[in-house]
Design goal:
- Residues 45-168 form the Lcl C-terminal domain.
- Helix content is 19%, strand content 12%.
- It has 224 residues and is an alpha+beta fold.
- The protein has a domain at 40-102 and 133-170.
- The protein has a 4-stranded antiparallel β-sheet, with no helix packed on it.
- Strand 7 (144-148) and strand 8 (153-157) form a beta hairpin.
- The longest helix has 21 residues, at 4-24.
């Protein structure tokens, strides 16, 4: 009996050690990726993305003008489209990087033809013969950035002598965004000098002078 007890304990210990390994095998089920709704052709030269609410112009600057634009000159094209009030909108602007990314099809099932006959991954609901790049809001005179729709990334350039196309977007109810600012970013507020939350408001501050700490009261003269 004494010889068999240790072996029984070893078996029970091995069983206990086996339990955690069985738990590790059970992995939580992955949540299914929500299916994106398809773009909608509005029939007026624009396309609506129901997933973001953005309205895109079907043609880019190259298809409209057969010209490329530098960052410094791209505003000429934007202003012209807004003056025309294309499709009834006057708040056309270049997209932010996060907005331009939504045009790139990651499934590989959608392809559009550029001006050179090369296919690139955006929805063919947009007009063929366009250019596969665009200026984006993150660009500035100090930092030249262009977004490549073929590979879905932005590229910074060391000089200003860079040419590209312009693909415009509009968000209903949104005013024209300033160049270099993302439309969904809050504008920086000018901070005014204000008392901190812990300090009392000026109206509640007493005007009486405080007595210095540790001061001794002066003796009062009395008639003897």
């Amino acid at each position: 009996m004494a010889d068999t007890e240790p072996s029984e304990k070893v078996e029970s210990l091995s069983d206990e050690k086996a339990e955690p390994s069985a738990e590790k095998k059970t992995a939580p089920a992955k949540k299914p990726t929500p299916e994106l709704k398809p773009f909608v052709d509005n029939g007026n030269g624009t396309v609506t993305d129901p997933n973001t609410g953005l309205v895109w112009k079907k043609t880019d600057a190259w298809l409209d003008t057969h010209k490329f634009y530098t960052w410094q000159a791209h505003r000429d094209y934007v202003d012209e489209v807004n003056k025309e009030k294309f499709a009834g909108y006057d708040n056309w602007r270049i997209p932010s990087k996060s907005e331009a990314v939504t045009l790139v099809d990651k499934t590989g099932g959608k392809q559009c033809e550029d001006k050179n006959g090369t296919m690139f991954p955006i929805d063919p609901i947009f007009d063929a013969g366009c250019v596969s790049n665009t200026w984006i809001l993150e660009c500035s005179d100090e930092k030249i950035i262009r977004f490549d729709l073929k590979i879905g990334i932005d590229t910074a350039y060391p000089g200003k002598d860079v040419w590209g196309s312009v693909r415009l977007v509009s968000k209903p109810g949104e005013t024209s965004a300033k160049i270099g600012e993302e439309p969904d970013s809050p504008k920086p507020e000018v901070q005014k000098e204000k008392p901190t939350g812990d300090a009392p408001a000026p109206s509640s501050v007493s005007t009486a002078k405080a007595k210095p700490a540790g001061s001794v009261p002066r003796p009062v003269k009395r008639d003897v």
